[in-house]
Amino acid sequence: MAGKLIMTDTSVIISSTQISELIDLVKRIHGFDFSGYTKASLKRRITRIMQLKKISYYDLKHMLVNDQSFFQDFLEEITVNVTEMFRDPTFYKAVNSQVVPYLSTYQHSKIWVAGCSTGEEVYSLAILMREAGLSQKSFIYGTDINTEVLKEARKGIYSLRNIKSYAENYQLTGLRGSISDHFTILYDAASIHNELKQNTLFSVHNLVSDGVFNEFQLISCRNVFIYFETELQERILELFYQSLCPLGYLCLGSKETIRSDAFKKKFKVINQKENIYQKVGS
Amino acid sequence: MGPDKKLIERWKSAEILLLGGSAGSFKLVFQIIKLLSSELNKAVIIVIHRKKNYLSEIERLFAENSRILMREIADKDILNKNTIYIAPANYHTLIEKEGTFSLDVSEAVWFSKPSIDVTFESFAEVYKDRCIAILLSGANQDGAEGLLKLRNSGATTIAQHPEDAEMDEMPQAAINIGAAEYILRTEEIFNLLNT
Questions:
Q1: What is the residue-averaged pLDDT of chain A?
Q2: Which of A163, B22, B149, B159 sits most deeply, having the most CB atoms within 10 A of its CB?
Q3: Chain A 153-182, CB below 8 Å of chain B: which residues?
Q4: Residue B174, class by beta-carbon neighbours within 10 Å (0-12 exposed, 13-18 middle, 19+ buried)?
Q5: DSSP code at position B4
Q6: Cβ of B95 and A40 within 8 Å?
Q7: ipTM of the complex in this document
């Protein structure tokens, strides 16, 4: 109910001008550029931080300037880190039938999960690859701007309650067995099998400011674009285009589509409903 | 008894109709969609609680029975008149100043995603008195706070009469905090939207 408490507190009101001021401040002092983020969500997140910490706009500014450790908290709160294993089961079904056969033609395939948060999607894909018998022939990179969530991702330990809620997703993907087959369960925690962790690497990467770091057969960036304005989305689409091998695949979230004409020419629609694209052209 | 004159005027001049509902509201929303005229001249946004992974049925059923173009909201969709927008399951729906929708996967509010509060609050900030909002049957308190913010921003706010609601908790919660400017019987809601 934490979320609700926050919503009922109507005392925190922050203006658009103040949001812009904060964006400038964070960019100048911490080097993170949030100017391309959608404003409604940003405003909601910042309001939430102020309510959680019970601080005013001026306190917030002061802390952002003077309290280095506070910035990590701020970053963690401002970026949405809610994720699930096998979120949108029909998406995983589609990857399994439309992308995995392509990946299997490679001696070794590389996958990039951009904006991986606490790692659930990386491990979902790792499970998918294992079930396809491609565990030893694939490597998955998970990146995020947030170092704290990456620590969680590397551990691969999730609460048993969460795993239980992912069980239904797993069943709907049509994969055999159950999700618990991929975890070691210890009291109220579930630890992802070491075998699945072996071929993964988690590291910091900021989609706004960092560039190409490898060449991939598959890039999955789901429910990240919803937080970006169109212009920033297009800059990142270019980054993905440059990071994909010829005919490589790009997966966006189930409500995220490529709208720009220029990029429609660079990415062919493979699955309209699940927003799976393939790089075309040179 | 028909709705009062002032309310009819406000209904006619409103540019945006917001509908929020949960348990027990499905049939009602379905009936409302059926009666909305194709020359409504408003954008309609529907936020209904429902389970993730089972989304397509509601949208299909609604779309087949509507005289107005209907779509499930996708990232960066533009808010247009004479269109019914339905908030997708497992996302919150927000509206930007520029009139584009943005989606959000953050924490559930009142165990709900989509949350009615989140969408109502967002419209209160951007479209203020250009909105008319109706909160229908439901078994939790989502929507009450959002309806209050709408009312405070000058929007016309309506709660379904708790006696008519299959589940009265949701409209009652709104009434309790003074969020509902009007409390209408189901029949009165139909009459108003038919005007």
A1: 93
A2: B159
A3: 168-169, 172
A4: buried
A5: P
A6: yes
A7: 0.91
